[in-house]
Prior knowledge:
Blueprint: E1 3-4, E2 11-12, E3 15-19, H1 28-39, E4 43-50, E5 56-60, E6 63-69, H2 78-81, H3 97-121, H4 123-126, H5 129-169, H6 173-186, H7 191-194, H8 198-212, E7 216-220, H9 221-237, E8 243-248, H10 264-275, E9 281-284, H11 287-297, E10 304-305, H12 330-334, E11 342-346, H13 355-361, E12 369-374, H14 380-391, E13 398-402, H15 409-413, E14 418-421, H16 427-431, H17 435-442, E15 447-450, H18 453-462, E16 465-468, H19 473-485, H20 487-491, H21 499-502, H22 505-521
Parallel strand pairs: 3-4, 3-7, 4-6, 7-8, 8-9, 9-10, 11-12, 11-14, 12-13, 14-15, 15-16
Antiparallel strand pairs: 1-2, 5-6
Amino acid sequence: MEKQSADAGRPAKGRVVMLVDNKVDGDSRVQKAAESAAAAGWDVVLLGLVRSGNGRTWKLGDAEVRLLPLKTPLAKRHAERHRSLLRRPLAYPPGPLAAYRRQWAKAWRADVATRRAALRVAPAAVGSPLFRKTEQARLVVAGPVSKFLQKWVGLRSRQTTQAQKAGRALRGPLDRAFTASWKTVKGPRAWRRLEPVLWDYELTYGKEIDALKPDLIHANDFRMLGVGARAAVRARAAGRPCKLVWDAHEFLPGVRPWEDNAHWIPGNTAHESEFAPYADAVVTVSEGLGDLLRERHGLKEQPTVVLNAPDRPVDVDPILDDADEPVPDLRALCGIGPEVPLVVYSGSPGAQRGLGDMVEALPKLDGVHMAFVVPAPAAGYIQGLLRRAEELGVGERLHAVPYVPHWQVVRFLSAADVGCIPIHHWPNHEIALITKFFEYSHARLPLVVSDVKTMSEVTRSTGQGEICKAEDVDDLARAIKAVLADPERYRAAYDKPGLLDNWTWEAQAEVLDALYSHLVTGKPAAGGGA
Length: 530
């Protein structure tokens, strides 16, 4: 199976095409997977996307990253394309007609008013005496008719707006009935009606994958599963061996969708159910999620667990990373000195992640500062939290700072005193050891975590932190105070032999390399992989 890498001119174990439905930046798991696989001898091309503008290409170690421009015309809902007689019978059809009618009605009213005024102030300019009498008679009728028509057009325009808003929201009884009917008729194939936007991803990635002729496709998460499965089927039909690895980051039925409607979860879960059987191997982030996936999809083998662990910290100057680039100073960004107690949250923001609870707890923590390390500190949600801190009189003790590259995260976070994970009870939160858990651990931070199942169990067993009740501000404050009172008690947990060694990406990369080698060659990776 060995072939020459087109980029490096070196022997490669095979070509791996990785698929992800984001712009790669900020997705540390995908970046590390691509970079480590390339370092282990695979010819790796990572395909991501941009939602606006042109695509671009760059290198991630020895891996090539290509971002493809995604167009989503199939994302338009039925109400945005068709008139809904059942939802709002008086609505205009989608398109420019409603706006045209409103403007036309206003123009007629303006015309009537002007013609009336002209009869009073400039009759000679209007026309002959006979024409003026005819015009006056016409205006007696045109006035009330134009007024009525303007109100009628306004009513229909409002119905149009309401119909399109309801059609986009997809939360009504009609939407639920539509979903149920297609699930009954089509089963796993129902996504074609419920979430046709998934075809937009296929039409963006498909030809690019085919041209690369991969030996193995690594499809990250649910959208890319179908894209990867269809590409693998096409390759095999053309006589080229091609294996498919599905990397499931979350349990899809337990996701809180950003599009909260009657189609999103049923459509995407149907899509996942149709294409899960095509995977030659399934990779996931925890044993608990692996159990759920095996049960849901009837998998013959237990999914391989590849933890969201950080890179192994290297022993270098603490203010420089291994590429001799300065690691930002978290405390300097917050404007505080080394003696000030600092609690950090690092990761994607959201109400269900407990950031609001942290803000509400801050007035109960005298002298303590908090830092939110987030992708976009200027985002509306983060700015709202900062305003809330101002209202509580603690605005000077809450700070929002941007992400750093994934290889700098551990040293960046190590400047804090406590790593906080106050997430709420959601299905996916219960089963995962999330990325920040491992990043905090390698930064040797004492933890405060909520009582979600898996993370609280591990934290109790290692003794590396305190557990608080999810969504309980008082208990969150109590846990933070307990950790700050005796941080060395919790840090001592990291001295346990082998604990942090197992929680490194290097260890996970060996698992992934061995899986690739087994699928492509039928043999385990020589020497354990990367």
